[in-house]
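Side project, low priority. Logging it here so it doesn't get lost.
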Amino acid sequence: MTEAQLEDVAIAAAHAGAAVVRRRFAERETLTVEVKASKDYVTEVDRESEAAIVAVLSAETPGIPILAEEGSPAQGLAKSCWIVDPLDGTTNFIHGVPTFAVSVAVQDEAGLAAGAIVDPCRDELFATRRGGGARLNGERIAVSRPGTLQTSLIATGFPFRELSRLPGYLKAFEAFCRSTSGLRRAGAASLDLAYTACGRYDGFFEVGLSPWDVAAGALLVLEAGGLVTDTAGGGAYLGSGSIVAAGPAVHAAMLEVTRSTLG
């Protein structure tokens, strides 16, 4: 399949999952919530959304394995696979906070190839493919280009799954508090990256993430003219779970902070 065809499949799959999430949001008071780990939750909505996504991917691309958060077929991150988060922001969803999304991406031997993120509450579709740019509801988007880090609004997320990383993270948090115009923590990394891609945020950093949290969003930022690395400036963000994403100038300034605090 071409990148354009893979993008179309990603969009269809993300819409299938989002339809489930949108419908079930009104029923959230009746949901059964399970605890996967400390501060990490799963509901039947996560699983139902994942099943809808996997059904589309399996039908359209039966030869590509699937890595999905709630355990669908693939085991681990393969060089060629779909990477799926059926409900990014489950804690927000449970509490009725309308900031969550469905994220679907695919990578091949050359890297991330296509992806889509759907915000069910705002009817926003962020879609991208390698070499094809990034779009929001069909319109091209680009990262912002603020003059300095001091004028930038930066998004972040707390390493609640890896509290051993909290001391370093808090040093980075303080440094960014002192050197930016503001920090935001919304609770859905896929949307943080999508918002960085379209210029709503000037940059994003976080540690303790999983591949499905960042795959589609990372490609969006790259295709929107930004840079994406791990916190040390390398390219291992899918595997390491640490990420810095921003336009070129702000990315360089952010790395000065993350290299000295997070490594």
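Brief comment: The longest helix spans residues 3-25.
Revisit when time allows.
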